[in-house]
Amino acid sequence: MFARPLIDAMEFAGNGRELRGEVPVEALPRLGDMLVDSQGTVTYVVRGFRTDDSNILEVSLSGVCHLRCQRCLGELEYQIKVTSRLKLASTEELAAVDEDDEDEYIEAASQLDVIELVEDELLLSLPFAPKHPDGTCVSANEGLKQAANPFSVLAGLKKK
């Protein structure tokens, strides 16, 4: 097991700090249902900075995870390459955010769990129904069509 890094989000962003690390995929339990296996690691970089009107966390993720193709149910190697910018806001400010606002917000917690943030951003970036590119996997229906028809033997007996 590894130590889970915690940051004070406002102080982190206000001072322009940066945190880098790797987390094993097996340490991200909410991904479990979407994965074929829990092999691999996710590399993350969390950068904080301040703009004229807000503090921002930029989260960059890279790595590989193994999803299940929804067409053939086989393993699909999915390349992770995500960068998100999250504005820090208090609970009151979050309640006042308009749903149509294009910016993404996160609560400015004094004990923000970086691994949980990484897992959240990774979950949001995964495709709803992952599939191999067209023509690279055999769908379940095509596999059934190619299987021998069990009634073809009976049809052959009928002709005798």
What characteristics describe this protein?
34% strand, alpha+beta, two-stranded antiparallel sheet, 160 residues, elongated, 5 helices, 5-stranded mixed beta sheet
Can you summarize this structure?
The protein is α+β, with helices and mostly antiparallel strands and 160 residues long. It has one domain (6-158). The protein has helices at residues 9-14, 91-95, 114-125, 140-146, 152-158, and strands at residues 6-7, 18-24, 41-50, 55-68, 75-89, 104-107, 112-113.
Task: Give the secondary structure arrangement, pairings included.
Elements: E1 6-7, H1 9-14, E2 18-24, E3 41-50, E4 55-68, E5 75-89, H2 91-95, E6 104-107, E7 112-113, H3 114-125, H4 140-146, H5 152-158
What sequence of helices (H) and strands (E) makes up the elements?
A: EHEEEEHEEHHH
Structural class: alpha+beta
Give the proportion of residues in helices: 10-25%
Unreliable runs: none
Radius of gyration: 23 Å
Count helical runs.
Answer: 5
The end-to-end span amounts to: 69 Å
The count of DSSP E runs of length 2 or more, i.e. the number of strands, is 7
Instruction: Return the domain count.
Output: 1
Mean pLDDT: 85
